[in-house]
Amino acid sequence: MVKKRGNSEFLINFNETSIKPFIKGMNKEIKRSTKGINKSLDSIRKIFTRYEEPFCEIRQNHKGMKISIKLPDVKKKDITLNITSNMIEIKASTVLYEDEKRILKNYYRIINIPQCSQSKKTKAEYKKDKLEIKVPYTNLKKEIVVS
Predict the structure, then answer these.
(1) What are the boundaries of each domain within the chain?
(2) Reported pTM
């Protein structure tokens, strides 16, 4: 409710009944003005939230670990590897065409590696839809303590 208090002063009394229509009108205006933006954001969100976790086989021994990951129909240039001291992050994407529809497939996987691994000496190779990653371990010397 607005009350005039002199020539140029207004006293605005905000209460629940007076502000509800204002908020309702603002919400309608925001929805109307951002309708196209929301559609674009929804399509982008669908692309980034739809991913598959690829099949992964991990083998370890005292020398290191060997990771085999199946990435069907993915080209080598579409694979991104991010290797840190404690994990390997794999991202890959491909476009498939089924029944004249374009389908974007995203693959994503995080693999934790032990602290004794030498991440700087990690080697990766991609052949026939299969990514092979070899992570060597540091040589751990066993010390025998006699008491």
Answers:
(1) 2-48, 53-136
(2) 0.61
Q: Which CATH architecture has domain 53-136?
A: Sandwich (2.60)
**CA 98 vs CA 1, 95, 103, 104: distances in Å:** 61, 10, 7, 11
Secondary structure (DSSP) of 41-105: HHHHHHHHH--BPPPEEEEE-SSEEEEEEE-TT--GGGEEEEE-SSEEEEEEEEEEEETTEEEEE
Helix (H, G, I), strand (E, B) or coil at 114: coil
What is the tens place of the pLDDT at every residue in 40-77? 666 665 555 567 888 999 999 989 999 999 998 899 99
Tokens matching residue 132:
């092979």
